[in-house]
Write a structure and sequence with these properties.
The chain is built from 6 helices and no strands. The protein is an all-alpha fold. Helix 2 packs antiparallel against helix 6.
């Protein structure tokens, strides 16, 4: 309740300077799209680093492990940013839809009321589709992060050629999961762009 009150105060303050909930929602969807794009690159980088490590044929193995661990930590941070951005989107979206519904009741014209109600329903439908797409992509990150963590932990305590050989099979599974993750993120990113355009057209 405290958080809801703080958010309401924030939206009220922003409206006083001409920034409405719709504008905030556009910005947050845009931020989430960028966060997902960044996360894609981090996961692909970690996968490539693991592939390079598994191709090890001599040299400084610890340096390669450290690079892989850095990529894992970057992927983890990128995933957390995606989680935060999605949560921020849903907060302002619900506030916008509640406000929109309240304002629909204020119309004296039945025609305008019906038109606004239809636009609201269409926007809510598009939003729910976007949110589901984002959550699907989000849910794909957890198993990839878990697998990357397992591999980095295993290598941390087994920095030798034999350990690398033991992880060859693991790599195939991680590669498959990253490919699925990237595909789901591309869908969410595309839907984000469509939703932003929808909101901007209806302004």
């Amino acid at each position: 309740m405290v958080l809801t009150g703080c958010q309401s105060a924030y939206y009220g303050a922003m409206e006083k300077v001409g920034v409405h909930k719709r504008d905030i929602l556009v910005d947050r969807v845009d931020d989430a799209r960028d966060a997902q794009s960044d996360a894609q690159e981090e996961f692909k980088s970690a996968l490539q680093r693991l592939d390079e490590l598994l191709q090890f044929d001599g040299g400084e193995l610890e340096a390669r492990y450290n690079a892989l661990n850095d990529d894992y930590e970057s992927s983890k941070s990128a995933a957390e940013r995606v989680y935060d951005r999605i949560e921020a989107i849903d907060d302002v979206a619900q506030a916008l839809f509640d406000e929109w519904q309240d304002e629909i009741e204020q119309y004296s014209s039945n025609t305008l009321r019906r038109q606004s109600q239809a636009k609201l329903k269409n926007t809510q439908r598009k939003y729910q589709s976007l949110l589901k797409s984002m959550h699907r992509a989000q849910n794909k990150m957890s198993p990839v992060l878990a697998a990357l963590k397992d591999n980095t932990l295993y290598l941390k305590h087994n920095l030798n050629a034999r350990a690398i050989g033991a992880l060859q099979g693991e790599y195939k599974n991680i590669k498959r999961d990253v490919e699925v993750l990237v595909k789901e993120m591309n869908i969410a990113i595309s839907q984000s762009e469509e939703f932003i355009q929808l909101l901007q057209v209806e302004q």
